[in-house]
Write a structure and sequence with these properties.
The chain is an alpha/beta fold. Helices cover about 40% and strands about 20% of the residues. It has two domains: about 35-115 and about 225-270, Periplasmic binding protein-like II (D-Maltodextrin-Binding Protein, domain 2, 3-Layer(aba) Sandwich), CATH 3.40.190; about 115-220, 3-Layer(aba) Sandwich (D-Maltodextrin-Binding Protein, domain 2), CATH 3.40.190. Helix 2 (about 45-55) links the parallel strand 1 (about 35-40) and strand 2. The termini are far apart.
C-alpha cells in the first residue's frame, strides 16, 4: 500500500503536465513555425536578392529560395496558385493589383528600390541619342517585353516620346526580361538594347560581359522605375517571409541595394536610416 502511494505521488505531476500540454494544444503533433520562404523576384533584381538571402541566412535561422522571372509572369503565377511568399516586382502596379484582388496582404506593399533605364549601343560612338536609333533596323534593337516587364514598358514610352512609329515599335526584338536584353547586346545578336543600370554592376562583378559605361546612354530624364514588394496572402503566418519584408528597411540591406546600382526613394531612405 505504501509503495502504491509513492508511485501515485511520482506519477501525479507527469499526468498533470501531460494533461496541460494536451489541453492547451501543445501536443507533440503541433505544427512547427515555418522557417523558410520562397521569394519571387523580378529578373533585374536577381543578384541583389541572392546577396540579401545570404546576408539574412547568416544572421537568422531562416532559409530563402529565390525564384526569378519577369514581373508580369511572376504576378500571373501568383494568381494561378504558385507557392510564392513574397513578390518583389519591378513596378508598383502589380503588387497593388494583387492586394486589391485578395492575393496579397493589404498594407505590406512598399517601394524597395528605384531602377534606372539605359540605352546600350556599343558601336554607336559618342554622343548618342535615342532618336539616333532610326539609323538601325528595328530587328537590331532589343527591349524587354512591355507586356511582362516594367523596364520594357519604360523603354517603349521613351521610344514613343522620341517619335518612333507604332509600325517600327511593333517590329523591335522583344525578350522575356531586361536581363536578357543585356545578353542579346553582349552576344551581338542585336546592336542596341534598353537595359537596367543593375546590369552594369552585375557585369563588373561577374566579369563575364564586357560593358563600357561610356557606351551607355543613361536616360536620366526618365522617371526612375519604382520597384515594389508585397507579402502574399498565403504567407501571413510565415515568419521567414515576414522577416524578409521587415529587413528591407535595415541599413545593411539598403546598402546592398544601393551598391547594386539602385536608388532609394526619399521616404524609403529616411525609414531605412
Amino acid at each position: 500500500m505504501w509503495l502504491s502511494r509513492v508511485c501515485r505521488l511520482f506519477n501525479a505531476p507527469l499526468v498533470i503536465v501531460v494533461g496541460i500540454l494536451w489541453g492547451s494544444g501543445l501536443a507533440v503533433s503541433a505544427e512547427p513555425p515555418i522557417t523558410d520562404a520562397r521569394i519571387a523576384v523580378a529578373a533585374n533584381f536577381r543578384d541583389t536578392a541572392e546577396a540579401i538571402a545570404l546576408h539574412l541566412e547568416a544572421r537568422s535561422d531562416y532559409r530563402y529560395d529565390i525564384i526569378v522571372g519577369s514581373t508580369g509572369k511572376l504576378a500571373s503565377q501568383v494568381i494561378n496558385g504558385a507557392p510564392f511568399d513574397v513578390l518583389m516586382a519591378a513596378d508598383r502596379a502589380r503588387p497593388q493589383r494583387l492586394v486589391e484582388e485578395g492575393f496579397a496582404v493589404a498594407g505590406s506593399q512598399r517601394t524597395y528600390a528605384q531602377g534606372q533605364l539605359g540605352l546600350w549601343w556599343p558601336e554607336a560612338g559618342q554622343p548618342v541619342a535615342v532618336s539616333d536609333l532610326s539609323a538601325l533596323s528595328p530587328r537590331e534593337i532589343c527591349l524587354a517585353n512591355p507586356a511582362l516587364a516594367p523596364y520594357g514598358s519604360a523603354a517603349l514610352a521613351v521610344l514613343r516620346a522620341a517619335g518612333f512609329s507604332e509600325t517600327v515599335l511593333a517590329a523591335l526584338v522583344r525578350v522575356d526580361n531586361v536581363n536578357l536584353v543585356t545578353a542579346m547586346v553582349a552576344q551581338r545578336q542585336v546592336r542596341a538594347g534598353f537595359i537596367a543600370r543593375s546590369a552594369l554592376v552585375a557585369a563588373a562583378k561577374r566579369d563575364t560581359v564586357q560593358m563600357d559605361e561610356t557606351e551607355i546612354l543613361w536616360l536620366s530624364d526618365h522617371q526612375p522605375i519604382d520597384q515594389a514588394l508585397v507579402l502574399l496572402d498565403r504567407a501571413q503566418d510565415n515568419l521567414a517571409a515576414r522577416f524578409w519584408v521587415e529587413q528591407m528597411d535595415h541599413p545593411a540591406i539598403r546598402d546592398l541595394i544601393k551598391a547594386d546600382g539602385y536608388q532609394l526613394s526619399p521616404q524609403e531612405s529616411a525609414r531605412g536610416r
